[in-house]
Specification:
The complex is a heterotrimer of chains A (about 500), B (about 500) and C (about 100). Chain A is α/β, with parallel strands linked by helices. Chain A has a domain of about 270 residues: Amidase signature (AS) domain (Amidase signature (AS) enzymes). Chain A is built from 15 helices and 11 strands. Chain A has an 11-stranded mixed β-sheet with strand order 1-3-2-4-6-5-10-11-9-7-8, with helices on both faces. The two termini of chain A are about 15 Å apart. Chain B is of the alpha+beta class and about 500 residues long. Chain B has 3 domains: about 290 residues, no CATH class; about 120 residues, no CATH class; about 60 residues, Arc Repressor Mutant, subunit A (Orthogonal Bundle). In chain B, about 40% of the residues lie in helices and about 20% in strands. In chain B, the strands form 4 sheets. In chain B, strands 1, 6, 7, 8, 11, 12, 13, 14 and 15 form a 9-stranded mixed β-sheet that branches. In chain B, strands 5-4-16 form a 3-stranded antiparallel β-sheet, with no helix packed on it. A two-stranded antiparallel ribbon of chain B has the order 3-17. With about 100 residues, chain C is an alpha+beta fold. Chain C has 3 helices and 3 strands, in the order H-H-E-H-E-E. The radius of gyration of chain C is 23 Å and the shape is flat. Chain C starts with a helix and ends in a 6-residue tail after the last strand. Classes of the chains: A alpha/beta (about 500), B alpha+beta (about 500), C alpha+beta (about 100). Chains in contact: A-B, A-C, B-C. Chains A and C meet through helix 9, helix 10, helix 11, helix 12 and helix 13 of A and helix 1, helix 2 and strand 3 of C. Strand 2 of chain B pairs parallel with strand 1 of chain C.
Chain lengths: ~500, ~500, ~100
């Protein structure tokens, strides 16, 4: 067993730790060795904090010896590099934040530390979480563990690849328009985006403030429930965090779907959806039906507008959020320059990658005098219509089932020349983001050797329901012969 | 300076006021930056670090609403914060959280005295935002010009009060500024000191030929660090614009800074960077719903304002106008004075003079703020009562005040140690006779017509009584005794 | 929809010193993206109120209480250049 502890789920590792079969130090060593063995191929990590992780593991073992317990005590996790970590470099995979070391922890990071988790490192991502393939990392791309010539999805591609390649037991990512769910689908792991406001954004480097949420990427739905419970809840430092109690999500996983009303919208199965993916998702829905769920056809008529709405609103907010990176206070700079304005504009031009610059330009334009009403305000209004679609749908269904991504993992470099083609990778995850709804991607088999994801969407704060359905499906799902990973043992 | 003939002057004022809160606008860092060493009152939020989020300081909202109520503004039920985007190195996030279309207070007015007439200056709005960091322009250690950033001020709550263009002269602008400053002090919302930057008045000025339509073009004048500077800058600007028009030139929209040393405004247009604030709703802050209960609660907290107070002083209390004006500039001192007046049996003017002269001189000498007054109003009233009754001479009262100030001892303690004034006629007459007996030469001088001898004898009486003799009474008694002596 | 001059203007607003080649590429990309956004014009939104936030929250405030600031070392640690306990930048001209 000791050889492949890194393959454990959070739940199984927790059991083994509780039983005293293994120590957190054993587990952490195993994970660090695994990173050593495969990360050169996946590129999932930007920074591995081995020494700190082992120290945390020792602490966790000491805590356990003192009688402490908890589902995350001593569990090695990875953190997307979009979350601030006290004393540990945080770059958002951007050159502009090279060398930046925050003097504080994001609230979710602090909560994981309090729970005794071991943080093994910071995972790679699309720069400032802008991207759907992880090719926009300012450092190096991430490769899909199932096929190293393909992308892992984005922007939490590093976290998804790290989980899929067993380089950590679970990871945190962030989802603005699908950045947890889409890479989870492409890498064959579970990815949960909570209700907007469910999890604190304090310390999450902002991309689009009205959309960003932190969410877990895990090997099982149960583990996602554990991570959500550990990270969710009101935070006085985030005025948009909801002051609602946090249920014991894991305890509510009863495997039942009987009587559950599952909505299926034709808008999510139309043009551009890979036939193989659609069929995998339809099979999954059939399984739910066969086990007592009621399948209802619904319509979400404004789905097609989600893409333009998102790509107006998110870049607009981003254009302000990313304004602070100007070489004055931290990060890339040129302090020897003579002209401060020139210095700041040059640092920004050099420090940001092409996609980030494109979105800053897009957002600046959409907010600029004379265009605000036509773009930003109009997009906000259509956002209302998209939200209303869901409100109506949830009057007659409990959850909505759909594919997470229109395709399986695509080739590295396959879409980099065409920004719109890349943007379309998020087309099925954007609507729930715009409506602030919780949504999960759970693996639903393989298409041509690559993982496909089933997306489930629930009404606000119904994460428990979402997890219950996803977990039930996970239990009912046929054990399809998983193809061998490119980074297998 | 008067308005140039044939022209009309249009001035609107934008006043930034730092609010007197314990913590900053959007974070829990102390807002007491004025006395702090550079960069010691900074947290990730006010430094604009990646990942931080703002949370609204409820007290800053309250103080803004209170100000709006004092300015007769409407307090709408819905307000929100917006991001105002502009790129300047002292703005940590490169956007300022401010209020665009839904400010906390809308409309209102402030009455000023203009050449004996009351004029109403309309208020457009009062909104809340955050201050920037402080830039200092220096020659760097390497001899190169550089700017240094102290982040302490970043995020201090800043209230902006905007007027309609109702002001027609520098004098009116100053009257508005002074009046507003007093109100802010009376409300307790700000120290409102211009020198410290707690009160900053920017002006939009334009001059138009009478008969011509008033256009949109205006010159924004900044950097006035005192009321004097405000008056001078506006006078200069009116004169400059008038001369421009006289030469047949057109007014140009621009920002000009007041150069104190050169006593002129200087164009600040330096870079041809486009300006477009790109306001949009702050996604990190849910909107504000201002309940009527909250407004009511604040209205009930409204203290007496300087106008009403001044009226009370100059009306029923009979205090001189100039004294009243002087007093209302310092709210703590004014409130203290009223407290003493209410406990004092004698005329209010007596108290006002005493406070403005003796008490304030001591405050200044000891570098104390009015709210650090070491003597209670009750003790101060008792002290004045002793003086009024003649138990302390004016000089003695001054000495007692000083000792109470410095030692913290009670009035009773100090008076017990120093003794009261001796006004008893029999006792003083005895002493006077003793002194005369001991100084026959002085008596003779007096009788020879040298009136100054009375002063000498008086000094001797004071010496014997260790200064406690009532000087008026002694002079009176000495003359009686001397004259009787001659008559015998 | 967006000409080169506008791209240059927006880049100035965004404080991005783009190269000539970047401006060309940017114009082409923005043109293509904005074209896709035209779809939004198909909808009549005259009676729809905008959604800026999806959470049902209002008036989230905190009490006026202070907490300890960062140490000055933590404030300055990431600063590119420090002088006299302050962040040094090249000389800034007065705000216009």
């Amino acid at each position: 067993m000791a050889d492949d502890l890194f393959r454990l789920t959070v739940a199984d590792a927790g059991d083994a730790l509780t039983a005293g079969d293994i120590s957190s130090v054993d587990l952490t060593r195993s994970v660090l060795d695994r990173i050593d063995a495969v990360d050169a191929r996946t590129g999932a990590f930007l920074l591995v904090t081995a020494d700190a992780a082992l120290a945390q593991a020792e602490d966790a073992d000491a805590r356990r010896a003192r009688g402490d317990a908890g589902p995350l005590l001593g569990i090695p996790l990875a953190i997307k590099d979009v979350l601030c970590t006290d004393g540990v470099a945080t770059t958002c995979a951007s050159r502009i934040l090279e060398g930046f070391v925050p003097p504080y922890d994001a609230t979710v990071v602090a909560r994981l530390k309090d729970a005794g988790a071991v943080l093994v490192g910071k995972t790679n991502m699309d720069e400032f979480a802008m991207g759907s393939s992880n090719e926009n990392s300012g450092y190096h791309p991430v490769r899909n563990p199932w096929d190293l010539s393909r992308v892992p999805g984005g922007s939490s591609g590093g976290s998804a690849a790290a989980v899929a390649a067993d380089e950590c037991l679970a990871a945190l990512g962030s989802d603005t328009g699908g950045s947890v769910r889409q890479p989870a689908a492409l890498c064959g792991c579970v990815g949960l985006k909570p209700t907007y406001g469910r999890v604190s954004r304090y310390g999450l480097v902002a991309f689009a403030s009205s959309l960003d949420q932190v969410g877990p990427l895990t090997k099982s739905v149960h583990d996602a429930a554990v991570l959500l419970e550990a990270t969710a809840g009101h935070d006085p430092r985030d005025a948009t965090s909801l002051p609602e109690p946090v249920p014991d999500y894991a305890a509510e996983l009863d495997g039942k779907v009987e009587g559950l009303r599952v909505g299926v919208a034709p808008e999510y199965f139309g043009e551009g959806i890979d036939a193989g993916v659609a069929s995998a998702v339809e099979d999954a829905i059939s399984i739910l039906k066969a086990n007592g769920a009621e399948i209802r056809e619904i319509t979400l008529p404004h789905t097609e507008y989600a893409l333009p709405v998102y790509y107006v609103i998110a870049p607009s907010e981003a254009s302000a959020n990313l304004a602070r990176y100007n070489g004055v206070k931290y990060g890339l700079s040129d302090p020897q320059a003579d002209d401060v304005d020139e210095m700041m504009a040059t640092v920004r031009a050099q420090g940001f990658g092409a996609e980030v610059k494109r979105r800053i330009m897009l957002g600046t334009f959409a907010l600029s005098s004379g265009y605000y009403d036509a773009y930003y305000l109009r997009a906000q209004k259509v956002r209302t219509l998209i939200k209303q679609d869901f409100d109506t749908a949830f009057e007659s269904v409990d959850v909505i089932a759909a594919p997470t991504s229109p395709t399986t993992a695509f080739d590295l470099g396959g879409r980099t020349a065409d920004p719109l083609a890349m943007y379309r990778a998020d087309v099925l995850t954007l609507p729930a983001s715009l409506a602030g709804l919780p949504a999960i991607s759970v693996p639903c088999g393989f298409v041509d050797g690559l993982p496909a994801g089933l997306q489930l969407i629930a009404p606000p704060l119904q994460e428990a329901r979402l997890l219950r359905v996803a977990d039930a499906y996970e239990r009912l799902r046929p054990a399809s012969p998983a193809p061998r990973q490119a980074v297998g043992a | 300076m008067t308005t140039p003939p044939g022209y009309r002057v249009v001035i609107g004022l934008e006043t930034h006021v730092q609010l007197k809160t314990a913590s900053k606008m959007f974070c829990r860092t102390s807002a007491a930056y004025a006395s702090a060493p550079p960069n010691t009152l900074v947290c990730p939020v006010c430094l604009g670090m990646p990942g931080v989020l703002p949370v609204i300081n409820a007290a800053a909202v309250d103080l803004t609403i209170l100000t709006g109520l004092a300015l007769h503004s409407e307090i709408p039920p819905h307000a929100k914060f917006d991001r105002k985007n502009y790129a300047y190195p002292d703005l940590m996030k490169w956007y300022q959280i401010s209020q665009y279309d839904l400010p906390l207070c809308v409309g209102g007015w402030l009455e000023i005295d203009a050449k004996g007439e009351t004029r109403r200056i309309r208020i457009t709005r009062v909104h809340l935002e955050e201050d920037t960091a402080k830039l200092t322009h220096v020659v760097g250690d390497d001899g190169q010009p550089a700017s240094l950033i102290d982040v302490n001020r970043s995020g201090v709550p800043l209230m902006e009060i905007v007027t309609e263009p109702d002001i027609t002269s520098a004098e009116e602008a100053m009257a508005y500024g002074l009046k507003l400053r007093n109100i802010l002090r009376w409300l307790g919302v700000s120290t409102a000191n211009m020198q410290d930057g707690a009160l900053r008045i920017d002006a939009n000025v334009s001059v138009w030929p009478i008969g011509a339509e008033v256009g949109d073009t205006k010159v924004e004048v900044k950097n006035m660090n005192s009321f004097r500077a405000l008056g001078q800058a506006l006078d200069f600007e009116v004169e400059r614009q008038t001369a421009l028009l006289e030469r047949g030139e057109r007014l140009e929209q621009e920002t000009r800074g007041w150069d104190e040393r050169a006593a002129r405004t200087v164009s600040q247009r330096t870079k041809e960077y486009a300006h477009d604030y790109r306001y949009f709703p702050e996604p990190d802050l849910p909107p504000l719903e201002i309940t009527r209960e909250r407004v009511q609660r604040l209205a009930e907290q409204m203290p007496e304002l300087p106008d009403a107070f001044r009226q009370r002083l100059t009306g029923e209390l009979g205090v001189a106008s100039a004294d009243a004006d002087e007093l209302i500039e310092d709210r703590d001192l004014a409130v203290y004075t009223i407290d003493v007046i209410e406990r004092h049996a004698g005329p209010a003017a007596e108290v006002v003079t005493w406070v403005l002269q003796d008490v304030r001189r001591l405050l200044n000498a000891r570098e104390l703020e009015s709210d650090d007054m070491p003597i209670s109003a009750a003790s101060m009233a008792q002290l004045l009562a002793l003086r009024a009754k003649g138990e302390l001479s004016s000089t003695m009262a001054g000495t007692v005040l000083e000792e109470m100030f410095d030692s913290g001892k009670s009035l009773e303690e100090v008076v017990a140690a120093r003794g009261r004034q001796i006004s008893d006629t029999d006792a003083l007459a005895d002493i006077a006779r003793e002194v005369m007996a001991a100084n026959p030469q002085a008596v003779a001088d007096y009788h020879a017509g040298k009136d100054r001898a009375v002063q000498f004898l008086m000094g001797q009486v004071m010496r014997r009584t260790r200064g406690q003799a009532n000087p008026g009474k002694v002079t009176e008694l000495l003359r009686v005794e001397l004259d009787r002596d001659r008559g015998e | 929809m967006i000409d080169r001059e506008q791209v240059v203007h927006v880049a100035a607003l965004a404080r991005l010193a783009l190269s000539e080649a970047e401006i060309d590429r940017m114009q082409a990309d923005l043109q293509q993206i904005l074209q896709a956004f035209e779809a939004l014009n198909a909808l009549d939104v005259s009676d729809v109120s905008p959604t800026a936030q999806v959470i049902p929250l209002a008036t989230v405030e905190r009490p006026d209480a202070t907490e300890a600031p960062l140490s000055r070392d933590d404030v300055m640690r990431n600063a590119p250049r420090v002088e006299r306990d302050q962040i040094r930048v090249p000389a800034v001209l007065p705000e216009d």
